Amino acid sequence: MIGELDRVTFDSAVMGGRACIRGLRITVALILNLVANGMSTAEILDAYPYLEADDIQQALRYAAFLAEDRIFTPEPTPA
């Protein structure tokens, strides 16, 4: 899965090493926030003309990978 995400990059010199798109100063988190707040792909591309539709799709796929279903059962804390 990660190998298929060639547009999601990590560079300690760019945005503190956060997940970015193609080394640009556009973080995956920014794209996710734009989508979550109702912006369409066309609106995002209009606002950020150096992005491509595939960039947005890979940001969403990366987020889905990170949110993969895993059950976490915390240990009970002693009273």
Question: What spatial form do the alpha-carbon principal axes imply?
Answer: elongated
CATH structural class: Mainly Alpha
At CATH level 3, the topology is: Arc Repressor Mutant, subunit A
Q: Tell me about the biggest sheet?
A: 2 strands, antiparallel
What string, H for helix and E for strand, traces the elements in order?
EEHHH
Low-confidence stretches: none
What share of the residues lie within helices? 25-40%
Number of strands: 2
Based on CA atoms alone, the radius of gyration comes out at 16 Å
Question: What is the beta-strand fraction?
Answer: 5-15%
Q: Which homologous superfamily in CATH is the superfamily?
A: Winged helix-like DNA-binding domain superfamily/Winged helix DNA-binding domain
Kindly report the spatial arrangement of strands forming the biggest sheet: 1-2
| CATH arch. level architecture | Orthogonal Bundle
- Measure the end-to-end span: 42 Å
Mean pLDDT value: 90
Individual helix count: 3
Count of structural domains? 1
Structural class: mainly alpha
Write a concise keyword list for the protein shown above.
79 residues, 3 helices, Arc Repressor Mutant, subunit A, mainly alpha
Write the topology of this structure.
Elements: E1 8-9, E2 20-21, H1 28-36, H2 41-47, H3 53-66
Antiparallel strand pairs: 1-2
Q: Could you explain how this protein is built, in words?
A:
There is one protein chain. The protein is mainly alpha-helical. The chain has a single domain (2-65), classed as Winged helix-like DNA-binding domain superfamily/Winged helix DNA-binding domain (Arc Repressor Mutant, subunit A), CATH 1.10.10.10. It is built from three helices and two strands, in the order E-E-H-H-H. A two-stranded antiparallel sheet has the order 1-2. Helix 1 packs across helix 3. It is elongated and about 55 Å long. The mean pLDDT is 90.
